[in-house]
Fold:
Amino acid sequence: MHRTLNELLKHVDETDTKERHRRVIKAMADANYKDHVITAESENIFYCAKPGTGFYSFRVVFLPGGVILLYGDIGQLMLQPGAGFEWLKSAVKHNRVSDYVLEKTKPCIDWRTKMFLTGDAAAELREMHDGIPHVDAKGINFVEQAKEEGEPTNDDDWELKPNPELALKIAGEWLSYDETGQDADAWGRAYYYATGDCEYPDCRDYSTDVLYCYHALSWFVRKRSED
Structure:
C-alpha cells in the first residue's frame, strides 16, 4: 500500500523552520539584552550586562588584525581577521540575522553548531511533490525573492516541475529511520539513496547559542553607536 506525502509527514513538525527558529531566538535575545549597559574595561574590551546580575552577560574584545571575540554567559563567538567595529557596524545595520557576518566565524562554526530543521526538509519535499514554490510564514516565495535579489532571471532556471514519485521515495526512506524526521544524517542518506546525488538541500540553521551571540553583537553595535 502506497502512502501519501501527508501520511508520511504526519509525525514531522512542519513548524520547525529557519524562519520560526530565528524569529523566536531574536525575540528572546531582545528581551534578555534590553536592560544591559556597556562598561569599557579598556580601549578594546567591553563588558555588557544588566546591572546587578551576570545573567546573559558577555564581553566584546577587539583584537589586532580586525578579529572580534565575544564570550560570556551566553557562549562564545569569534569573527575572523578583517572585521573590526566599523565593518561590524555596517554589516549588522539591518536588524536581522546576517549570514554574511556569521560566515566570518569559520572555522569556529561547523556541523556541531548547526541544527537540523524538520519543517524546512518537509517543505523541500512538498515543493518537489507539487512543483509549487514554498511560501514561508511571512508569505515570501523563494523564487520571487531570489529574482528580486538579482539572481538569474531566466524563468527556466526557476521552473519547478512536480516529481511526486521522487518526493515519496525520499520521504519514505528518510522517515523509515525516525518518523519524526529529526535525524539529519537520515535526511542526507535518504536523498542520496533516492537520487544518487551527494548534494542535497541543507535544511540546517545556526544553533541557539550562535544566534544568541550574534544578537549580542548586534545589540552591542546599536548601543555603542547610540552612546
Q: What stands out?
A: The two ends are 66 Å apart (CA to CA). DSSP finds ten helices and seven strands in the chain. The CA atoms of residues 134 and 142 lie 7 Å apart.
